[in-house]
Amino acid sequence: MNRRDALKVTGIAMAAAATQAQATESKKEKTPMNRMEMKPADPSKPTDYELKHMPQITIKDKDAKGYTMVEITVGQKGIIHPSTPDHWIDFIELYADDTLVGKNILEADISRGASAFAVKLDGVKKLTSKAGCNLHGIWTDSIMVS
User: Fold this and answer.
1) What is the pLDDT of residues 7-23, one digit of tens each?
2) What is the CA radius of gyration of the chain?
3) Could you tell me the strand order of the sheet in which 37-38 lies?
4) Separation CA 134–CA 105 (nearest Å)
5) Domain map of the chain by residue range?
6) What fold, for 37-144?
7) pLDDT for res 112
8) Residue 91 CB-density burial (10 A; 0-12 exposed, 13-18 middle, 19+ buried)
9) The whole model's pTM is what?
10) Is the torsion defined by CA of 121, 123, 126, 130 positive or negative?
């Protein structure tokens, strides 16, 4: 292959990659992102739909350095939120009292609505998690730390 042919092949490959990237960005731009704050109609009896969107916070063991693993899964009572190209959990946040501990951004289809954070819980009274469903809004749940 001579230099001119090599440059042509490289140019074609670069154009194809750019076209693929534009197609991916275009699909994301068209995907709806509902940012309304949501909550169960009756917090004492959430529906399956509401449970599917609510983050479940689980406090695990504390390590030798004083950090406690806090796991968040979107969906409660065995009802797990789906992750498809058109319907997924796009972020999970964790707050210790009112301080943001961390935020994870999740991609459609390839990831599931779950995250974990190592947190120093000394003096913390409440953990709150927010999870964003691209179609059904931002759902929040909290637990008290004992």
Assistant:
1) 455 555 555 554 454 44
2) 21
3) 37-38, 137-144, 126-133, 89-96, 99-105
4) 12
5) 1-30, 37-144
6) Immunoglobulin-like (2.60.40)
7) 95
8) middle
9) 0.80
10) negative
